């Protein structure tokens, strides 16, 4: 297994000196080339888990291993793509994608060739000379994905990369990401609040419960790629996951709202895309 979490617990000390346990006894194995999504209510520890694989956070107990070695910090084999593209506004699209390659001491010519290849992979070759402010949100995220891909990490860690995008753009990016994943064979760990997104993209979905976050259930998504959004089996799986999540959502909302919250089953169904942010 390429990524292994063994008995992972994570505790944070809050500003009032109280201890907050975010993850409890998480055991998870992710194979090389697998596309796996992490789903769960807001605050259940998804980003904390991803950051531990990235080497940006460390378990309080337990181990995180990548290719058999304990993670001690960030490495070239792992790159995170965040919700915000984080492009440098003063650099062109091409320069943004070249930046990491130049830091790795590639010649300007080599960096430019690789960056153009990356941009073509996300269908933005024509926009190489544009600046970030000239691009839409979806295009910026595609540049961010190209910037990560050209560095050729084995593992791509994606923390709600499409959360800020409208539904149409998101669907286009789903198709592109599926193509990229199939073409490159990268391992992808993908965080989302959107059940449909998880079902459309992943081979496995890990549902985290709260609090502290532990694995509530793991779902295999059997459908082949490219996925059909109208597939009845996928719709059925969405419903199944939604029902499991309702219980967890109720716990979170009850904790946040106390007596003011009167949870009714089916409450979440009003959101057709089942976005499960804390604003629901
Ligand atoms: N460095 C930190 N210090 C203290 N508490 C933290 C720290 N990082 C995260 N937390 C807390 O840990 C909990 C889990 O946070 P995390 O961001 O991992 O959850 P999440 O499931 O990704 O949430 P969301 O879906 O809202 O992004 C939250 O209550 C958060 O406030």
Automatic annotation (TrEMBL):
Concerning Gene3D superfamilies, the annotation shows: P-loop containing nucleotide triphosphate hydrolases
Can you give the residue ranges of the ABC transporter domain? 3-237
InterPro entries assigned to the protein according to its UniProt record, in alphabetical order: AAA+_ATPase, ABC_transporter-like_ATP-bd, ABC_transporter-like_CS, ABC_transporter_ATP-bind, P-loop_NTPase
The record's listing under SUPFAM superfamilies reads: P-loop containing nucleoside triphosphate hydrolases
Among the GO molecular function terms of this UniProt record, one is: ATP hydrolysis activity
Tell me yes or no: is Transport among this UniProt entry's keywords: yes
> Which controlled-vocabulary keywords does the entry list?
ATP-binding, Nucleotide-binding, Transport
Could you identify this protein by its name?
ABC transporter ATP-binding protein
């Amino acid at each position: 297994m390429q990524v292994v979490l063994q008995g992972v617990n994570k505790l944070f000390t809050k500003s009032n000196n109280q201890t907050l346990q975010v993850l409890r006894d998480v055991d998870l194995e992710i194979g090389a080339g697998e596309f796996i999504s992490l789903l769960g209510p807001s605050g259940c520890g998804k980003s904390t888990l991803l950051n531990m694989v990235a080497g940006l956070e460390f378990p309080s107990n337990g181990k995180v291993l990548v290719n058999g070695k304990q993670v001690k910090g960030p490495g070239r084999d792992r790159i995170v793509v965040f919700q915000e593209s984080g492009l440098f506004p003063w650099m062109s699209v091409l320069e943004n994608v070249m930046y990491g390659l130049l830091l790795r001491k590639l010649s300007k010519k080599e960096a430019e060739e690789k960056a153009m290849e990356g941009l073509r992979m996300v269908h933005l070759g024509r926009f190489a000379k544009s600046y970030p402010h000239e691009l839409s949100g979806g295009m910026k995220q595609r540049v961010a994905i190209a910037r990560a891909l050209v560095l050729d990490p084995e593992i791509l860690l994606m923390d709600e990369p499409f959360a800020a995008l409208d539904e149409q753009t998101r669907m286009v990016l789903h198709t592109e990401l599926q193509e990229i994943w199939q073409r490159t064979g990268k391992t992808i760990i993908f965080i989302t609040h959107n059940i449909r997104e998880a079902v459309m993209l992943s081979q496995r979905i890990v549902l985290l419960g709260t609090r502290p976050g532990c694995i509530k259930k793991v779902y295999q998504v059997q459908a082949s790629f490219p996925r059909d959004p109208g597939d009845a089996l996928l719709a059925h799986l969405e419903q199944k996951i939604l029902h499991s999540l309702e219980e967890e959502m109720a716990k979170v909302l009850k904790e946040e709202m106390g007596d003011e919250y009167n949870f009714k089953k089916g409450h979440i169904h009003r959101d057709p895309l089942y976005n499960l942010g804390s604003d629901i």
